[in-house]
Specification:
Layout (H helix, E strand, L loop, with lengths): L2 E4 L2 E6 L6 H8 L18 E4 L2 E4 L12 E3 L1 H4 L6 H8 L9 H14 L5 H7 L9 H15 L15 H6 L8 E4 L6
Parallel strand pairs: 1-5, 2-6
Antiparallel strand pairs: 1-2, 3-4, 3-5
Bound molecules: FE2/S2 (inorganic) cluster (FES) (2 copies).
Length: 188
Amino acid sequence: MPRMTVNERPLEFDMEPHTPLLWALRDAANLTGTKFGCGNGDCGACMVMVDGAALRSCLITIAEAEGRFITTIEGLSRDRSHPVQQALVAEQAIQCGFCTPGIAMAAAALLQRNAAPSEAEIEAEIPNVCRCGVYPRLVKAIQRAGRVTRRRETISAAPAPGISAADAAKAVPALRATGTVNANASEE
Ligand code: FES
Ligand code: FES
């Protein structure tokens, strides 16, 4: 039963070791902010941080994630206050929003390494597919988030989408549970 730390909580998945991390996060830990797009490593909708690096969770098994530190969009910030989240909202770089969690994780990982990325660097480092075509606004948003990270700018808090962070956490058991997550729990 692979063990790892997810959003700063220790979890042990009672699932087959070859299970993709994406399914463990979504189906067992109820962390549905991480999206399933293609399942082939092409779209980036499933991007999470593994030991600080943005990786596609559809391509990693839970055996490969054993002992590692996983951050999902739910753990990026509890109150949507991460500069990337605020800048994506401020620059209106979200349309349907399906790609947004994966893009936010890729952008957050990029800004950890390089808080002042050029447009070319953003295009190279954020390979995520957005079917709504937010790319021009995405570049502006990530560069703006970089300025916030470098303390050159502030963005007033993004409006909460009608639900408090505390209420959202109530519906996400893995954010408060520790120990084994049983993949079959919902069927019992
Ligand atoms: Fe993982 Fe598309 S679902 S890259
Ligand atoms: Fe719709 Fe990107 S905002 S897929």
